[in-house]
Amino acid sequence: MKSIALKAIFTDHRTQIENLLSLIVIQVLNTLIPFFLFPYLVKTLGQVQYGQAAFVVSLINFLQIIVDFGFNYTGTRLVALSKTTEERSEIFYGIFIIKLVLYLICIAILALTALFIAKVKAMFGLFLIASALLLGNVVFPVWFFQGMEKMKIISAVNFFIRIASLILIIVFVKSPQHTERYIIINSFSNLLPGLFCFFYCSYLFKLVFKVPSVNKIRMIFHDGKDLFLSNLIIGGYSSIRIFVVGLFTTSELLGVYSILERIYFIIQTFPLVSFLQATYPKLVKNINTNRARVINFMRKATYYFLLYFIVAVTVFIVVQKWILNNLLNVKLPQNHLLLSVVLGVTLILVNYNAFKLEFLLISGNDKLYRIIHFFTGIVGAVSLLLFTYQWGIIGCACSVLLTQISIVIYTVYTYKKKLGFVL
User: Which residue in 85, 176, 119, 146 sits closest to 278, CA to CA?
Assistant: First the structure.
């Protein structure tokens, strides 16, 4: 009887299960490959050069939020709810045009930043190379495949590209002088599959090129505006932290902090992000017809993921010194344990709140999502500059914790005040 029940569940949710597995494969490649490269990169490039590479990528990641414009959610939602090939074609090329314009704006921002910040000017060549990541974001239609619930293709492309980039890094990155080579490989490993998937997507789904009307572009732009502002504030805060640490501390401390943040990022996103992305299209379609079931599903998911993250963070705090000293040859500051605990508590709070914020997007409450991140983002931006300037990497970690506490409190308040329940 159990086998029959399991077979029925698989039949009913086959697409979601296949997409979840595909997304997990993508995330494994995007997170675990860089993780396994840690020992090699830190030993080869050195703690200082690795920190400088992270400094470059942090600013590019901030600009990537601008290029993305929240379309990973709003674009997916538009595609999931679309009915015809003509409608999907307009969405596809409309988002591409918007992203291309945003990319050109980001290149201009990068050039202006170099004029006013000497450290950026000195490394401007590396920043330009890394900007290939932005162009990759423009052409990589992951959001479209996700909306169509066809993620196996993306998974296969990512598999071959990530393995190829791993081999190229090991073969061509041999010393601290090869930082530029590392950034080139890292950047183009996103651009090349993006170009392939852009054209393949158009062919597979029979999309017809047509310059969207001004009204259609305005509609797409307006649909993504609230999520973009939210991501720009809180996502920008997350991606710019290493950049601020690089401005106010030494290269050695920048290396330590960037490595720790990377490890916590892996713990935070795997497998949570894959789970959220795989279930998002289905939940969007069901929210209006079976709201209570969606809410119950997300409450259970919150509980089980929270248990997982508490265990994962605790284990890492216990073994972190051995990992950083023996595997990565990182010279730890005296306050490394405090730093790790503060970041660990922050990570648990992030995941406690993840499904609450996700539900706001699923239910179409983008404005509430934006308001939450707008006010807490101000707390984050101000505290980041003040705390990091005053107390270095510990100050930066405390700013992260303060910001996340603010998000949790404001999210619970918003649910009670605006939605009448707490997820």
Answer: 146
